[in-house]
Amino acid sequence: EEFSQAKSDLHNNPELFSGIAYVHWRQGRFQEAQENFRRSVELDPLTALHHYSLAECYNFTRDYENALKAIDRAIILQPDRASYYSNKITILLNWHGDLDEARAVVEEATAYVEPIEIISQGYWQYNLVDISLDSLKSHYQSNMRSNLSDSEYYATMAMTYMSASKSDLMEAYCDSARQVLEENIKIAPDEYGLRMGMGLAQACLGNYDRAIEEGKLAKELMSVSSCHW
Questions:
Q1: What number of CA atoms fall less than 13 Å from residue 88's CA on the CB side?
Q2: Distance from the CA of 10 to the CA of which of 129, 204, 217, 229 falls in 20 to 30 A?
Q3: What is the tens place of the pLDDT at every residue in 161-217?
Q4: Distances, alpha carbon 157 to alpha carbons 68, 83, 104, 167, 175, in Å
C-alpha cells in the first residue's frame, strides 16, 4: 500500500517498481510482479539486478524462455557475477534437464569467474564440474563461512554431501544444524527463518512429519515485508 502511494511521486523510480514486484511475488500475484519487474527494467535497463530479478520471477512461474532471455541480459551487463550463471543453470535444468547444456554455462563463464564460485552458489550443482569435495569445503570455509550462521554452514555442507551421495556425512551435518537451530529457536521461537531451517534439517534426517510441521509454522510466521519467496 505504501509503495502504491509512492508511485505518484516516484513514477520513474526503478527501485520502487522492483519493491512492489517483490511484494506481489510474495503474495502470489505473479503476473503483476512480472509487470513491475519489467517496468523496473524499462526504467533502468543497465542495472543487471533488475534483469536477474525478472529472470527469477519468470523461472518461478515456469516461463523458462523469458527467464533465459532475462538472465542472459543480466550476464551481459555483469559477467563477473557467479550467482547469475548459477541462476542460468537452474533455468536450463528446469527447462530441458540437460546436464551437458548446464556444463556449457560453466565453460562460458570461465573467462570471468572460477567454476568453484558458480558451484558454491548452488550445492546441488556439484556434479557439473570436476571439483573435489575437499576443495569445495575449503572454499566454503575461506570465502563464505564468515557470511553464514553455524546452522546455515552446516546445512550447506549437508546438501553438498547429499549431492555427492555421501549420506553419512550429510546426516552428520544435518544433525549439527538441527542442534544449533533447536538452541536458537529457544531464544527466538517466532523467527520464521529458524523454523524454515529446522524443517529442512528434519527432512534431511527423514523426520518428514516434523519437517512439514516446521514448514507450516514458518509460513504462518512469515510476513510479506520479510520475504518474497
A1: 26
A2: 229
A3: 887 788 999 999 999 999 999 999 999 999 999 999 999 999 999 999 999 999 999
A4: 29, 18, 25, 12, 11
Task: Please tell me the total number of residues recorded for the chain in this structure.
Answer: 229
Q: Which residues, 6 or more positions from 53, have their beta carbon under 8 angstroms from its beta carbon?
A: 18, 21, 22, 37, 40
Number of neighbours of residue 187 by Cβ within 10 angstroms = 8
> If we measure between CA atoms, which residue out of 226, 225, 201, 229 comes closest to residue 213?
201
Measure Cα distances from 100 to 9, 75, 92, 103, 187 in Å: 49, 20, 10, 5, 46
For cell 564468515, the residue is 146
Which of 153, 151, 142 has its CA nearest to residue 114? 142
Sign of CA dihedral 142, 146, 148, 150: positive
Q: What angle do CA 155, 162, 57 make, to 5 degrees?
A: 65
DSSP assignments along 60-117, one per residue? HTT-HHHHHHHHHHHHHH-TT-HHHHHHHHHHHHHHT--HHHHHHHHHHHTTTS-HHH
Round the CA-based radius of gyration of the chain to a whole number and report it.
Answer: 19
Whole-prediction pTM = 0.76
CA–CA separation, 162 and 206 (whole Å): 13
For the chain, which domains are there?
A: 132-229 (1.25.40.10)
